[in-house]
Amino acid sequence: MKKTILITGSTDGIGKLAALKMAKKGHEIYLHGRNADKLQKVITELKQKSGNENIDGFVADFSDLSQVQKMAEEINTKISHIDVLVNNAGVFKSSQPITKEGYDIRIVVNYYAPFVFTNAILDTIKKSLEPRIINLSSAAQSTISLDLLDGNITVSDQEAYAQSKLAILMWSFYLSRQESVVAVVALNPGSLLNTNMVKAAYGRFWSSADKGADIIYDLALIKNHAEIDGKYFDNDKGEFGPAYSDAYNVDLVNKLIEKTKQVLKGSF
Ligand SMILES: NC(=O)c1ccc[n+]([C@@H]2O[C@H](COP(=O)([O-])OP(=O)(O)OC[C@H]3O[C@@H](n4cnc5c(N)ncnc54)[C@H](OP(=O)(O)O)[C@@H]3O)[C@@H](O)[C@H]2O)c1
To answer: How many structural domains comprise the chain?
Structure first.
């Protein structure tokens, strides 16, 4: 059955590869990027490579939550339902690690943006008969500092990234409990896949980017709805696996969500 699929951060890396794989199977694909020219080029490229004309896209810089909100409004107006949302856009290194509002860019792009975006389009997602959300986490997961969420401290690139990736994972578990009809899964797509992010961060890679694209495809279209809901898939092991222990501490999850709502209400 043809699905409507939206992948954020699909102008490059594993998101772009997953989009191409899905487009080749005839699904309706919505891409997202922060740069309008690059987005348009990728739409044209994927149409040519897949022979699928049902590819469109949206622009928003996810380090600016007002753009995230605006993109969500456009989507709610233009798209009747979304079967699969892949929250894939992410950043590790940046020349401007602190946003204009004073928050760490990893926390904003990798966690606050998908949180705001998903909540803003949740009704459109719930119009699907079998909705699912795939949230890109990582093997890098580190205990979250509420001070980092508040923008009160700065930490290393690696630490900010790892905290943002545990935050999106913990929120995935929370969202899965809140939304019974939506299957929500968190994913480590595999470590050091060959993408721009990894080359900039580590200068080397371990596996091809296809490894990440293939597991996104499987979780989006192959695996059973109930099988994935509320779980963490660890593609370094190729199986659903335990996440960092904080993710199973409901008190910590609730504190994270409470702080997130407080920050998002007060600052943006
Ligand atoms: N590669 C790995 O080994 C690995 C491992 C674990 C988790 N992940 C996760 O997988 C996801 C995809 O990463 P990747 O490795 O494919 O990286 P990538 O090739 O750098 O792609 C990242 C995507 O996110 C977009 N993006 C970055 N900053 C953005 C912003 N401020 N606003 C909007 N879009 C933005 C990029 O846009 P541009 O095209 O404009 O750059 C690109 O489309 C990330 O969430 C990452 O954390 C990757």
So the answer is: 1
